[in-house]
């Protein structure tokens, strides 16, 4: 049987082995692979293989990928370079959102930043996920991380998937290995809210508190960033309305201000009489403090500010909230849970879901019910009592 002739794209050559220095036979494949997506120029793929069979198989694979427009030329772009380019290209993100992306990508960049991104495998990402869950990964500053929650780890996987999708779209990697990584099972999380009785106790305790109006705003459904960023220019005490137009949030260890979280978050709310009275008192207190300081301090533009007229960072408000709740003798829940409490109490009082969503700044009422409306023990007991009365009445009728 005669030997098959080599196709023109494959040549048998003699080269020096890099390890031994001896002359060996290699089969070199040279294929026109079309236009390079990164440079816009025509390109060729040149690969060498130890056997003719490997070379022929590679020729078929490369030709098929080229025909489908899926061929990816070899690249030295590293994981670090790709992550940096991806972040730089997210022009539409707020500073806070970009900071979160950087945070989620940090473990990948720290461990595999030096690695060419074409060499990043599913096993690499799986190993990183396992270590984040177990704890003990090291930050760029040498600090050992505590175990991450399933929710946080899943955000890392999703962010890595976004970066690789961008790299695949640019023709830098042939496949997105993060798509194959399983998400971590997220355990059910119970979100605490205050009962109506606890709200009344807290309101009584903060009646004369300097930041009492901040906690009243939070219990009225405002986000922490909305409370911190609310300005007196957005409050009309005469007509009794409050406009959410500013958000003050933490981003990368710094406090930044931007527009509300979404279009639905930009809203104008009618102020209840109680809240009008509370805000009038707070404004008068700030006016007295400003007068006492004279030209010192400022700008006194914010509804919630310190004794010299400067706005608070959101994290500081959370610390003050914790100490206030503790002093009131009420069990601790997070400041954001005050917002949950507002939605839950509205729901238990029969307020329609669409109205609750509009009040707290959600576009989707079903999302509001999923995230913020929680049945409370007292409400469940009342429901049980109602069922008991109904069943008892029916038993009496039967007798």
Automatic annotation (TrEMBL):
Residues 189-385 form the Tyr recombinase domain. InterPro entries: AP2-like_int_N, DNA_brk_join_enz, Integrase-like_cat_sf, Integrase_catalytic, Integrase_recombinase_N, Phage_Integrase. The keyword DNA-binding applies. Keywords: DNA integration, DNA recombination, DNA-binding. The keyword Lipid biosynthesis does not apply. It comes from the Bacteria. Coiled coil: none annotated. Belongs to the 'phage' integrase family. PANTHER family: PROPHAGE INTEGRASE, PROPHAGE INTEGRASE INTA-RELATED. This is Site-specific integrase. It comes from [Mycobacterium] crassicus.
């Amino acid at each position: 049987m005669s030997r098959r002739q080599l196709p023109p794209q494959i040549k048998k050559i003699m080269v020096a082995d890099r390890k031994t220095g001896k002359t060996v036979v290699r089969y070199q494949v040279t294929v026109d692979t079309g236009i390079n997506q990164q440079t816009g120029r025509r390109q060729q793929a040149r690969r060498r293989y130890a056997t003719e069979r490997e070379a022929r198989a590679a020729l078929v694979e490369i030709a098929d990928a080229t025909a489908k427009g899926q061929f990816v030329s070899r690249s030295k772009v590293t994981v670090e370079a790709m992550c940096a380019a991806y972040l730089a290209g997210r022009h539409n993100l707020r500073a806070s959102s970009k900071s979160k992306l950087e945070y989620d990508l940090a473990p990948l960049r720290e461990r595999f930043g030096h690695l060419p991104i074409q060499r990043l495998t599913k096993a690499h990402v799986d190993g990183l996920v396992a270590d984040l869950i177990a704890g003990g990964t090291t930050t760029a500053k040498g600090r050992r991380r505590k175990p991450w929650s399933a929710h946080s780890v899943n955000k890392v996987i999703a962010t890595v998937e976004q970066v690789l999708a961008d790299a695949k779209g640019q023709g830098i990697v042939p496949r997105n290995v993060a798509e194959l990584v399983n998400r971590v099972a997220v355990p059910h999380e119970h979100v605490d809210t205050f009962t109506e009785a606890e709200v009344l106790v807290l309101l009584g305790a903060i009646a004369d508190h300097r930041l009492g109006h901040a906690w009243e705003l939070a219990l009225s459904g405002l986000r922490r960033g909305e409370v911190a960023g609310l300005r007196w220019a957005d409050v009309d005490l005469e007509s009794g309305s409050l406009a959410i137009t500013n958000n003050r949030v933490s981003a990368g260890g710094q406090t930044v201000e931007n527009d509300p979280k979404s279009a639905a978050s930009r809203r104008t709310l009618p102020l209840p009489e109680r809240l009008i009275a509370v805000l009038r008192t707070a404004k008068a207190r700030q006016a007295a403090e400003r007068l006492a300081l004279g030209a010192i301090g400022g700008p006194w533009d914010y509804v919630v500010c310190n004794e010299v007229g400067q706005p608070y960072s959101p994290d500081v408000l959370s610390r003050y909230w914790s100490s206030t709740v503790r002093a009131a003798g009420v069990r601790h829940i997070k400041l954001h849970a005050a917002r949950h409490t507002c939605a839950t109490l509205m729901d238990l009082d029969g307020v329609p879901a669409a109205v609750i969503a509009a009040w707290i700044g959600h576009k989707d009422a079903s999302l509001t019910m999923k995230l913020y409306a929680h049945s409370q023990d007292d409400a469940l007991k009342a429901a049980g009592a109602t069922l008991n009365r109904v069943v008892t009445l029916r038993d009496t009728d039967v007798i």
